[in-house]
Amino acid sequence: MIKHDSITNQTPPPSEGLGEALTLTLLELNGLVRQVIEHALNQEYWVEAELSECRESRGHCYMELVQKEEHSPTPVARASAKCWRTQWMMLQPYFERTTGQPLHAGLKVRLKVYAQFHEAYGFSWIVTDIDPTFTLGDMARRRMEIIRQLKAEGVFDMQKELELPLFCQRIAVISSATAAGYGDFVNQLLNNTRGLQFQVQLFPAVMQGDQVEQSIISALNQIYSVACRTAFDCVVIIRGGGATADMSGFDTLALAENVAQFPLPIITGIGHDRDESILDMVSHTRVKTPTAAAALLVSHLEEVYDTVCDAQERIARYVQNRIALEKSQISNLKSQIQRLFSVVKTRQESRLDLLFNRMVAAVRRKGTASGAALTALEQRLPMLMQRAITMRTHQIELIEAKVKATDPTLLLRRGYSITLKDGHAVRDAASLRPGDELTTRLANGTVHSTVK
User: Fold this and answer.
1) Which residues pair with 67 in a beta bridge?
2) Residue 25 burial class via C-beta count within 10 angstroms: exposed 0-12, middle 13-18, buried 19 and up
3) Is the pTM of this model over 0.70?
């Protein structure tokens, strides 16, 4: 129990002209309230509440406590609490060392308090102890609830399904621009011993405090919009130089959802061995520090480079072996071709000789047969010619008889005549005109006449 000095219990004088009602000064009234509180609440209590505000001033810690309805943000109780400097100097490092984060708004805490009422400053609870295990339990419960929700949404392992590109060289970095860890990351990445090339672009963000969530989400949105013009291979979120105790900003549902569903692999280097945030859990790869993230990227590209070099050597050896094999086969074929050509040449020469002999024999047989045919034809030719001459003579006599039969002089001898006009026979009297001159041929002589 905390002992306090009490105000002297003196009964104030009665008010004049106001009956039996007492008239007190504000100081006297507040002194009575102080006496009542100190006598009625004369021990320390453990209280469970949520911090709606927490700030330090001159070494003292000032807190605003609230209790909300279940599943509702509406407060059902409020109170102020203070932790004096001498006590806060011991409680603060103990709490941060145990929970891994400082006291901040939104945390649920279990505080050991006693009541204090001051005539000038009013009522407040004075904190004498903090139970960090209660906050750890609430943090664990909240973390488990966020993890459960991410798994229910089917996004918890989405980053793990992405593959880090083979040539992962274009790096988008989310970090504080002034953080020493960012400088270490860039130096180790760009000054690697193998001389591998990387392109790094920084997207500044707040990496500790209450603005962590929105700042990193904003940086991710910038990377997504810039990626339309400049393609990145992966995103690295690093937090160098920050306090180990300030990790709460990386344990939020909104940030985890954005990271889990981001289309590029995300590597995190924001904590130490014992600190694994929800952001680490949903990322593609989690490493301890910014330099470890740089070492991971360098090692990954070195493996790809070694694989390419090894493949190059294997291809070169294969090509050399293949060339040697082909040369050997060509040499074998060359000797075989010479041998085969000699055999083929001999066979073809024998075949040509055989064909030549056959052709000569065939020509001779053909010549003998043609000579016999010519001799027979020579014997038959006079008879055939005589027969042809007789036939042609008979045909000429027949033609001559037909020509004589059509000779017009024969008709003239029989008493017929032919009348001509301009050398053409007149067959129709209607075709004549007066004055036309006509010539009439008779068997003996001609007659000239004029048409009237």
Assistant:
1) 77
2) exposed
3) no
